[in-house]
Specification:
single chain, 196 residues, alpha+beta, 6-stranded antiparallel sheet, 3-stranded antiparallel sheet, 26% helix, 26% strand, globular
Length: 196
């Protein structure tokens, strides 16, 4: 079924609202970040106004998504070329960042505010992970450790160790994750000592 451009733009509002709620951001906070008035943002989310390119650009930048994903443009046949975000049932968004088949794959994860009482369900698989927290606090259960990684902190581990990722009640978390083959580790070319 082919949608008209008007129908496509009319469907943007619910996606904008869903993205904002996942980030746990108010209209006022979003207005300050995007320089689009809160009333305009409200009308866009409610479908009372169709978005313009000038409005979609700052919103896509703020949410870290493509304009294609905001307007739900058709996907290409090859997922290595179409790096659009994927939404998960728990409200998380996974954004593929690399196109290198067979090698290390890079992803950005955005997880909504979590519950500190949540009992994790750690999993294992073949491979090696590297995680770097961009914003917020990442709860990483790794074997018998229950870690809280803050922005700027990283972890590296063999994925045969039971592991689980989540956000805390402090708010949403954004982090980068590199997933490599079993036995593949990060190769540090230089380590610069910090000045005291």
């Amino acid at each position: 079924m082919n949608e008209t451009p008007e129908q496509t733009l009319d469907a943007v509002g619910p996606r904008l609202k869903q993205l904002r709620l996942r980030r746990d951001v108010t209209l006022t906070q979003l207005a300050a970040e995007t320089r689009i008035s809160a009333s305009t943002l409200s009308r866009l989310e409610a479908g009372l106004r169709r978005p313009t390119l000038e409005q979609l650009l700052p919103l896509a930048r703020y949410y870290g998504v493509t304009i294609d994903s905001l307007v739900d443009a058709p996907r290409t046949a090859d997922p290595r070329l179409d790096l659009r975000p994927m939404s998960c049932p728990d409200g998380s968004v996974i954004i593929p960042l690399s196109r290198r088949p067979g090698g290390v794959q890079a992803y950005k994860f955005v997880r909504p505010t979590g519950s500190d009482d949540l009992v994790p369900d750690p999993r294992t698989h073949e491979g090696h992970d590297w995680v770097y927290v961009l914003n917020g606090t990442l709860r990483l259960v790794l074997g018998d450790q229950d870690l809280r990684l803050k922005a700027g902190e990283a972890a590296e581990f063999d994925t045969r160790t039971p592991h689980w990722f989540g956000a805390t009640s402090a708010g949403p978390v954004e982090y980068l994750c590199l997933v490599g083959r079993q036995g593949e580790r990060a190769h540090l070319r230089a380590v610069v000592p910090t000045a005291d």
